[in-house]
Amino acid sequence: MADTLRIDASLRIEAAPDLVRAQFRDIDHHIRNDVHPSIKFTWEPSAPGERRIRTVFSILGVSQFDVAVLEDAPDGTFVIRYLEGTNAGMVVTHRFVSLDGGKATDMQLSADAPATLGRKILGPLFVLGARQVMKKALHEDKRDIEKGFSPGRAAGDVARALEGVSAARGRGEAAARAILEAACFLSAVDGQVDDAEVDAVRAIAAQLGVDAAWAENRREVILRASASESTARAKEIGEQLAARGVAKEGVTAAAVAALVSHGMSLGELEALRAIAVGAGVADEEVGATVERVDAALMQA
């Protein structure tokens, strides 16, 4: 299109297309592992089923930002549509082309950027600069994938984030299950559970010595429950934590389960607060716990 500038870049990655696609889609992995050191990613509030991110970066020392929506297209491509900020209106399409019988991937990026006056003035220089930025990002993802990216895992140092929770194992099975119930609730309260959340709950179950199958059953029960029952159920879970003397540990485990995938949504934060109310944990302590857990996960 005449009002759009097209920029293309590609790079061979020594991994199967499905693995490469999983890494590019895993924003939590990018956040926790600092895959792109010059870009800071955070999750933005979004509608159910939608994924929005904010990126912050610098150009010539001046802070810039973008807000974008992430889409999985029917043809298997991964699309980022920029809604606000420096690159508003730009669309970046990721294509994962199989090479060597599926053993490697030709990672192809195509960016369609609005032909603003400033970009028209720069002309080929803008295209050259944008292509170099795209190539740099591709090399950073390639390095991350080829050093051993594993899909479906909770992003970040989950063990560090759970420090102190495993001590509750000595308080009996009922206490351990109360903690795990809180984590299951936060992982499923939004009506869906992804692989990273499943992995986190399994890690919590292992630390507490609780059968993972029990946690899976509890999560399925929560998913089937009516949304209108959520607040009351969260408060009941909190009361059980308090009764077992593991309020702090339960709030921590629940925060971990929420933060490992897509950040913590407003709905999850409200659910965590409802658990804390039932457990007798003050809002200030909930906020401190979320910040501590998030910082621990970032140290992976």
Average of the residue pLDDT scores: 88
Using the CA coordinates, give the radius of gyration. Answer: 21 Å
Spatial order of the strands forming the largest sheet: 1-7-6-5-4-3-2
Gross morphology is elongated
Give the helices and strands as they follow along the chain: EHHEEEEEEHHHHHHHHHH
Main structural class = alpha+beta
Strand count, sense and closure of the main sheet?
Answer: 7 strands, antiparallel
Terminal CA distance: 43 Å
Low-confidence stretches: none
Could you list some keywords that capture this structure?
300 residues; single chain
Walk me through the topology:
Layout: E1 4-13, H1 17-25, H2 27-33, E2 40-44, E3 51-59, E4 62-72, E5 78-85, E6 91-99, E7 104-114, H3 117-122, H4 124-146, H5 158-161, H6 173-188, H7 195-208, H8 212-224, H9 230-244, H10 247-259, H11 266-279, H12 283-297
Antiparallel strand pairs: 1-7, 2-3, 3-4, 4-5, 5-6, 6-7
Structure report:
The chain is an alpha+beta fold. Helix content is 50%, strand content 21%. It is built from 12 helices and 7 strands. A 7-stranded antiparallel beta sheet has the order 1-7-6-5-4-3-2. The longest helix has 23 residues, at 124-146. The protein is elongated and about 65 Å long. The mean pLDDT is 88.
Summarize the structure.
Helices cover 50% and strands 21% of the residues.
